[in-house]
Amino acid sequence: MKHLLACTIALMPLTATAEERDRTFGLDELAPLAENFRDLFEGFTQDMAPLMKQLAEKMSDLNAYEAPEVLPNGDIIIRRKPEPENAPDDEPHANPDGSIDL
Predict the structure, then answer these.
(1) Is residue 1 part of a domain?
(2) Spatial distance between the Cα atoms of 42 and 20, rounded to a whole number of angstroms
(3) Among 29, 80, 94, 96, fewest CB within 10 Å belongs to which?
(4) Compositional bias (Basic and acidic residues) spans (predicted)?
(5) Which pLDDT tens digit goes with each residue over 65-74?
(6) How many angstroms separate the CA atoms of 77 and 70, rounded?
């Protein structure tokens, strides 16, 4: 059924009468519309750039939290991830016997 509808829509311009073809828009008539749309989109991107920057900064903060947990009573808890207690050192240290653990 979807294929029949798609074919019908695709073939409709081929069955248009001469009067209907004259009423359709040409590319020259669409140029001002495209220019207005470009101006609108550029203004939108300029207005949204600071907000997108703020959103990107907030998204980097989300790594400090665990996934949300829904309790049986409907409360939602978002816990902060625990800080690692014994983080491994970046530099290897020499043992008392002179060996180095990597």
Answers:
(1) no
(2) 35
(3) 96
(4) 77-94
(5) 889 999 999 9
(6) 6
Tens digits of residue pLDDT in 35-79: 888 888 888 888 888 888 888 887 777 778 889 999 999 999 999
Query: What tokens does 84 get?
Result: 């690692």
Domain membership of residue 49 (yes or no) is yes
Full domain range(s) for residue 78: 32-82
Higher pLDDT, 3 or 41: 41
Quote the distance between the C-alpha of residue 39 and its chain's center.
22
DSSP string for residues in 20-35: HHHHSPPHHHHHHHHH
Q: Percentage helix, strand, coil, to 5, in the chain?
A: 55, 10, 35
CA dist list (Å): 38 to 1, 27, 34, 59: 37, 16, 6, 29
Q: Residue 51: inside a domain, yes or no?
A: yes
* φ, ψ (nearest 5 deg) of residue 68: -60, 150
pTM above 0.70, yes or no: no
